[in-house]
Amino acid sequence: MITSSINEIKKELSVLESETLLALCMRLAKYKKENKELLTYLLFEAHNEQAYIENIKEEITELFKTLPSNTYLIKKTLRKILRTANKHIKYSGIKQTELEVRIFFCTKMKDAHVPRQQGSVLFNMYQQQIKKINTVLGKLHEDLQGDYLREINYISR
């Protein structure tokens, strides 16, 4: 089976009736948890982005409470937290949301006193997030950049 392009799918969806579209969406939601989560975001949470960000922060905070003391397990747990954060960032697609979530992750990592200097994996994970933050920051308006600079300076130290 050859997969159709997004453009072809868009054209085909535009000619379908609403009942057929509903059936297709329900079928998509049935087969993958990620599809269901994206539909949940689009239908129920996209209208209030700030509440969505707060929910993500709460989830990250809860995950950080389970951070073990073993360095190997810390790496695994932080990767899991980062996968969760990246999934929510992908659902939103808004640069400010991405920036806030990444800054929050780095802040929690710093406040949890994760031994970043000991292992190169943890150090590189943290530096990669700083790099992504700076990339996203460069794409925002100057006024918004100023709002985030204090937080970025805190995590960069």
Order of helices and strands: HHHHHHHH
Low-confidence stretches: none
* Rg calculated over all Cα atoms: 19 Å
What would the principal axes of the Cα set say about the shape? globular
Strand content: under 5%
Largest sheet composition:
none
Instruction: Assign a percent range to the helix content.
Output: over 70%
Distance between the termini: 52 Å
Count of strand segments: 0
Oligomer: single chain
Tell me about this structure:
- The chain has 157 residues and is mainly α.
- It has a domain at 49-156.
- The chain is 81% helix and 0% strand.
- It has 8 helices and no strands.
- Helix 4 packs antiparallel against helix 5.
Brief rundown of the structure:
With about 160 residues, this protein is mainly alpha-helical. The chain is about 80% helix and about 0% strand.
